[in-house]
Amino acid sequence: MRIIKNYFVLFLTFSSLIFSQGIKVNQITQITDTSKGEFYYPQFSPDGSKVFFTSDSYKGLWYLDLTSNQVTNVTTQEGAGYAFTFSADSKNVIYRTQKYEGMKKYYSVFEQNIATKEIKTLETDKGGIYPPQLTTANQIVCADEKGLNGYNLESGKSELQKSVSKPIVIIDNQKIVLFVNGEKKILAPLGEGNYIWPSVSPDNQKLVFTFAGHGTYVSDLDGNIISNLGKANAPQWSPDSKRIMYMADIDDGHKVINSEIYIIDADGTNKVQVTNTVNVHEMYPVWSPDGKKAAFNSYDGKIYLAELNID
To answer: Fewer CB atoms inside 10 A, N or C side of the chain?
Structure first.
């Protein structure tokens, strides 16, 4: 599918809209249409040259090359679009797939070369394995009930890891589970409840998470609360760890009736609105690696790209 550059500019008034705190949205552009399907949950490749996305059920994985504006399918496997990651050089995408045998779910993990489509199998038909996370240029890990399994992307060898070079966070039994220097921490900073959307800041110093029904919070890696961001769903750290981008969505119990994108400082100050539309409900934003762009999907399955200037 060929996407014409600047296919659709979302409300041209944004091109001259300057917010306080030195944030300027230069332009918001629709970069996919729905002629080949509805796409959701975008992610930038580490070099920022491509935007990857999936279906609403996480089946399959595609990307848009921001130079050629060409959309390419990577895989059609079930679950591949959920929490995938990349090699540090952007040459490979690593994803987890799923299948059912009776009532039991099994996962496999694959490394696929984006250019050649060559696939390496890192894990096959394993139960209870979490999505892959990059730790170093040549290593990813997947958590399971025993701890962290590390996979060397050069040799393909795997082994149980007692420690890795960066904190790894997952959700297990509605609680935050953090692996730091080989130590497993189970965190429930606000008591019993449902914790979702956790992520460690790029500087490995802080944690952002949402406590369902209460709001989104920033804490240190021991779970001590630093700030309350209010309703800030699907929070995403900026590359410099200073800000968080999120969606403020409203539903009627059946469907989303409004959603906008915001940016806020990690200390809970300087909230600014990135989108302000009536007919487009923007959701699940992500930062580009250089912090100069953001990608997000609309409720009806279109991917958008925002150009940002942040002082």
So the answer is: C
